[in-house]
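Hi U.,

Before I forget, here's the chain from the pilot set. I'm dumping it here mostly so it's searchable later in email.
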Amino acid sequence: MSQEKIPVQNEKMVRDTRTGALLSTDRDSVKAYERRRREAQAQKDRINRLEHELSELKALMSKLIEER
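Structure:
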């Protein structure tokens, strides 16, 4: 089951003859894209963690105020 690839006008792309998909042959660009995705996910995770911690702090402050 070999996958033939046909060059297209953009020299950094090929077309998969089986699926018709355009595929990048520029490994550096793919690696950079993957790095950006990982960094964006890490930033989202950090924001979610900070939002959770902020919610906990608000709950604790509310509890302290109620006890007064």
